[in-house]
Amino acid sequence: MEHRTALGATVTAFVTALADAGLRHACFAPGSRSTPLVLGLAREPRIRLWDHLDERSAGFFALGLARALDEPVAVVTTSGTAAANLLPAVVEANLAQVPLVVLTADRPPELRDAGAPQTIDQLRLYGTHVKWFAELPSPDGTPLVQRAAASAARRAVALARAFPPGPVHLNLPYREPLVPHFGLSIAAPAGAVLSGTPQLDERELAEVAALLARRRRGVVLAGPQPDPALAPALVELASLLGYPILADPLSQLRAGPHPRDLVLDAYDAVLREPEALPALQPELVLRVGAIPTSKPLQLALEAWENTEQILLAAGNWPDPAHRASWVLQGALRPTVRALTRALALATPRPDTDWLARWRAVDRAARAALEAGLAELDEPFEGRVFRELAELLPDGAVLVAGNSMPVRDLDAFFPSVPQRVRIFANRGANGIDGVTSTALGIAAARTGPTVLVTGDLSFYHDLTGLLAARRHRLRATIVLLHNDGGGIFSFLPQAHEVPEQFEFLFGTPHGLDFQHAAALFGLAYARPTDRSSVRDALAAALVADRTSIVELRSDRQRNVVLHQELWARARAAVRDALAAGTRR
Distances in Å between the alpha carbon of 279 and those of 212, 243, 428, 544? Predict the structure, then answer.
């Protein structure tokens, strides 16, 4: 079979199998070696192509799209360093369990290690950061190679989706000429779909349920996880136990119509008060999901040395302190449901005084923070999240950048009744690709999308803004601009090496991002006080294009305001503890 025809037949078999397996979206950046694949994808009506000019942005955009849709999304690159630029997104997808199908075009084997341009070793390029790697044979026109291509496509989509979800990598070597002649491909039999949901051990569930029933003073620590349907299941479990739920903002429990009387949202402030640690030490912590965002909560878990920990993990093992006495691995929702059924048979007896104590201090801390925020008229980075808690409509999506934004989200975003899905790249906690991830989520059209990001993260992914205009996306980007690395001002470096701090850690850049908005044709506003910030956010939420709302702040003043609010909350916690003791 003539080469171009063989190439077209194999690519058609591969792309058709991707679509048959349920793949509906593919992101790509331009390149020569990937020509056969992108031409094949463009011919498949069931797959939408999203073009990008930068592979790193394409990778994070695909990650955001896959995360919002909860389904596999492909990302396609040409050969060489183009493929290497996907590594940060692949790492994040692996740690955050996001289903990506990475398709890298390559030179054929005879051109490798022979000085051919744009050729690197792409075999197992992403190492242990992918669930599965395979290299397809170069198209040669034989039915076997076409069937192998179709089989690999189905397997890649199934494995990306299977529990625990994550990235897979296929390397596709193509010989020149690269423009195929498309004709009929040889049909390949459909493959099995993998669910990957493990079977829970009933004996272990019964033992864990019996242990929970014996520990009357416990807490549920709901860590980051993407499934909003887990919330009512976890509330039901906590209700049986009489445990408060310490709800990380990324747990999907902070927002929604589920009962919220057990959901506590001010623990980050509560656990900054030293008197709270012994007074609130639980007998048992039931951890669900990934590592919590809050540093005070992580420190409390370390300080509570005699507290047992049970971990429900979605396929990974998030226990860096190695404190968990039980680890149940499985899809979280069926695991929680099964544990609830087992617990009902164990007849737990909740301690109402214990729950009342946690509620009292949590409400006191939240009220103190709210009062402090209400008195501030100057711009304050943390209050952005309080404003968004009121402004975000039902069905909205909130994305937080790493470093300070996700921490301020934890501290200042209270529990709200409207359905708001909240995301952040907390797999590897990097600042790369934040804008592209958020725009990928916006592309899923799940509702109004708001990104709150810092100026260094924004600068790092500046090229990702092109996707907003290119794909006519609607999103609000709240840019917290303090001219440098604001989080370092909260760390020991700020006072231990003051003479070198600005150069080594503060890293001021002096950039005016209004020019970036103009460059990419985005709406832009720079409000200066509380009322104008709120007005700008409200306007951006209903705009028909992507808007940037920039909030300028001073790094040192930002630290002072945080410290004042935390001091106010700690005082309220002490008063609440004292009042409880008097009763």
Answer: 20, 15, 33, 51
Q: Enter the tokens of residue 324.
A: 């968990």
Q: Which two tokens stand for residue 463?
A: 């090229």
Strands (E), 107-140: 132-135
Nearest CA to 435 out of 420, 456, 407 is that of 456
Rounded-to-integer distance, Cα 239 and Cα 257, Å = 16
Whether the predicted pLDDT of 199 surpasses 60: no
Contact by Cβ (8 Å): 185, 12? yes
Q: Residue 492's CB: how many other CB atoms inside 10 A?
A: 8
Structure tokens that stand for 323 in this block: 């404190």
Instruction: Identify whether the C-beta of residue 366 lies closer than 8 Å to the C-beta of residue 265.
Output: yes
Task: Indicate if the alpha-carbon torsion angle 206, 211, 213, 214 is positive or negative.
Answer: positive
β pairing state of 263-264 and 324-329: unpaired
Residues 152, 132: contact at Cβ < 8 Å? Answer: no
Instruction: Encode pLDDT of 158-168 as tens digits.
Output: 999 998 999 99
The owner of tokens 């404003």 is 387
The token pair at 471 is 């794909």
Residues 512-560: tens digit of each pLDDT: 999 999 999 999 999 998 899 999 999 999 999 999 999 999 999 999 9
Q: How many CA atoms lie within 13 A of 261 on its CB side?
A: 6
Residue with tokens 């004042």: 564
108-141 exposure pattern, b = at least 16 Cβ within 10 A, e = fewer: beebbeeeeeebbebeebbeebbbbbbbbbbbee
Query: Do residues 27 and 62 lie in contact, with contact meaning Cβ atoms separated by under 8 Å?
Result: yes
C-alpha 434 chain-centroid distance: 10
Burial class (CB in 10 A: 0-12, 13-18, 19+), 320: exposed
Residues in the chain: 583
**Integer Cα distance of 447 and 420 in angstroms:** 9
Distance CA 421, CA 435 (A): 17
Residue-wise pLDDT for 74-97, tens only, equals 999 999 999 999 999 999 999 999
Spatial neighbors of 204 by CB under 8 A, at least 6 apart, are: 326, 328
- Which DSSP letter does residue 187 get? P
What span, in angstroms and rounded, lies between the C-alpha atoms of 466 and 443? Answer: 13
Q: Is 206 helix (H, G, I), strand (E, B) or coil?
A: helix
| For residue 188, pLDDT beyond 60 | no
Q: What is the DSSP string of 309-353?
A: EEEEESSS---TT--EEEEEES-HHHHHHHHHHHHHHH-----HH
Instruction: With CA atoms as reference, report the closest residue to 287 among 250, 245, 256.
Output: 245
Distance CA 257, CA 420 (A): 10
Q: How far apart are CA 189 and CA 147, in angstroms?
A: 8
pTM given for the model = 0.92
**pLDDT score for 379:** 84
The 8-class DSSP code of residue 465 comes to: G
Per the DSSP assignment, residues forming a β-bridge with 103 are 76, 170
E-strand ranges in 87-161 read: 100-106, 132-135
Residue 200's pLDDT band (cuts 50, 70, 90): low
